[in-house]
Design brief:
This protein is an alpha+beta fold. The protein folds into two domains: about 50 residues; about 190 residues, Galactose-binding domain-like (Jelly Rolls, Sandwich). Helix content is about 20%, strand content about 30%. Strand 4 and strand 5 form a beta hairpin. Helix 1 packs antiparallel against helix 2. The protein is globular and about 45 Å long.
């Protein structure tokens, strides 16, 4: 997307330069102000506008999981979120662990090698006093954060697979609470952590870049600061709505 806008900007500059030369009576034969270029510019601009307007994939492209060897770890949850006017939504299982818990909500973005950051907007609707409980660490607050995964991961976190899943820096993790929220994470932040604790992207730049270039899954994980994607449930009815998920 950035390359598209760069090309549009370059062509617009050429057109403006040609206009100034024409107005000054200068020669314009060496500048690419032709009808073909103008039509190309228009087409590129329209495509870029349309792409930017559909930054968040539709609900049908997302998966509530993870599904590992046929088992969905988000117990009590549908496989897909519900489509909404702004994006998608799901209802948290409640009011105990036995009702279920949500772990990962992800989609396949393709390569993230050219991406710089992810910006997310979301909303949580719940009555005052509702708690969001990590099913493995119920004494901690429930959290939501960002994650991406390299293609071919076997979920073992052993050997080379220890560097296939990457979780956003700890300072970007947000406690789940009612209201509208925003989250921005930069890919050049050296504090992304692998699935094996203590291994940071700044210390392992090559495996991190390889994972970005071969991404098969990106999205939101629900859990706690002790176990990012290990699942959350609510103590009362509550809804999570994604408003925007923009990879830039």
């Amino acid at each position: 997307m950035l390359r598209v806008f760069d090309r549009v900007s370059t062509m617009l500059r050429d057109v403006r330069l040609t206009k100034r030369l024409v107005q000054a009576g200068g020669r314009t034969s060496s500048y690419p102000c032709t009808m073909r270029n103008i039509f190309t510019l228009t087409a590129i601009a329209l495509v870029a506008t349309a792409a930017g307007a559909t930054a968040t994939p539709p609900a049908a492209d997302w998966e509530i999981g993870p599904v590992i060897r046929g088992e969905n770890y988000s117990e009590g949850m549908p496989l897909r979120p519900q489509a909404t006017r702004n994006g998608w939504a799901f209802d948290f299982p409640y009011s105990t662990k036995a009702a279920g818990h949500v772990h990962y909500v992800t989609f396949n973005p393709g390569s993230l090698a050219e991406a710089s950051r992810i910006k997310v907007r979301y909303r949580v609707d719940a009555d005052p006093g509702t708690r969001f409980v990590p099913q493995e660490h119920p004494h901690l607050p429930g959290t939501v954060s960002l994650f991406f995964q390299r293609r071919g991961d076997n979920w073992s976190a052993k050997g080379r697979y220890a560097l296939f899943r990457w979780y956003a820096p700890i300072h970007t993790v947000q406690e789940i609470s009612p209201g509208a929220h925003e989250m921005t994470v930069e890919f050049d932040d050296p504090r992304w952590g692998s699935v094996v604790g203590g291994r940071k992207s700044g210390d392992r730049p090559r495996p991190f870049r390889v994972a970005l270039a071969n991404t098969s899954s990106v999205g939101l994980v629900f859990g706690s600061t002790a176990a990012r994607g290990h699942g959350v449930y609510a103590t009362a009815p509550a809804r999570f709505e994604l408003l925007d998920f923009d990879i830039q």
